[in-house]
Design brief:
heterodimer; A: mainly beta; 4-stranded antiparallel beta sheet; B: 111 residues; 7-stranded mixed beta sheet; 3-stranded antiparallel beta sheet
Chain lengths: 118, 111
């Protein structure tokens, strides 16, 4: 069973870049699409983007200008960079397996809270 | 593109049946059978419970059922139990550049 674990700073300064890594275990990173979803405190889920190890990533148009995702197959990791962050980017960030054929997110990582504050 | 529309809250008594709605457009719910539902307890990770509009994930109680009519998807929970109290999110593929849409979520309270 695929398992995912997010890692990265819990505090980011406004205008800086938020960087997170998701480590995949229990399955090959080349077999699936990988995604990031975030959830601001007390609010709903927002899809950020997904990526395949050998393809062009797709991003939520609302974040596209600030988002970069990549896959490192040698480390079985994929990453998220979100630039020019503001307080509105404060959220729990989840990495998840995106089952492309079914268009579902399963399983998910435990999530990591990232706070944007000076 | 805006998120799918879900009622902010729904409540029911133990043993009752309740239905949560999720409204989209012909570009998402109405046009494709890629509607899924997620259950999330406070402070916990979202859990996939329904995919392909009506298919229940293995291990999910058969008290959970789902359907779609036009641009609206529905999740029905029968024989409501206290353990069903959670937030529920619908999700759909969309043919627009947004690709993936979540609903705003419905908080289910079991009275």
């Amino acid at each position: 069973q695929v398992q995912l674990q997010e890692s990265g700073p819990g505090l980011v300064t406004p205008s800086e870049t938020l960087s997170l890594i998701c480590t995949v275990s229990g399955g090959s990173i080349t077999n699936y699409y990988w995604s990031w979803v975030r959830q601001p405190p007390g609010k709903g889920l927002e899809w950020i983007g997904y990526i395949y190890h050998s393809g062009r990533p797709d991003y939520n148009p609302s974040l596209k200008s600030r988002v970069t995702m990549s896959v490192d197959t040698s480390k079985s990791q994929f990453s998220l960079n979100l630039s020019s962050v503001t307080a509105a980017d404060t959220a729990v960030y989840y990495c998840a397996t995106y089952r492309f054929g079914k268009k579902v997110f399963d399983p998910w990582g435990q999530g990591t809270l990232v706070t944007v504050s000076s | 593109q805006s998120a799918l529309t879900q009622p902010a809250s729904v409540s029911g008594s133990p043993g009752q049946s309740i239905t949560l709605s999720c409204t989209g457009t012909s570009s998402d719910i109405g046009g494709y059978n890629f509607v899924s539902w997620y259950q999330q307890y406070p402070g916990k990770v979202p859990k996939l419970i329904i995919f392909d509009v009506t298919s229940r994930v293995s291990g999910v109680s058969n008290r959970f059922s789902a359907s779609k009519s036009g641009n609206t998807a529905s999740l029905t929970i029968s024989g409501l139990q206290s353990e069903d109290e959670a937030d529920y999110y619908c999700c759909s593929y969309t043919s627009t550049s947004t690709l993936v849409l979540f609903g705003g979520g419905t908080k289910l309270t079991v009275l």
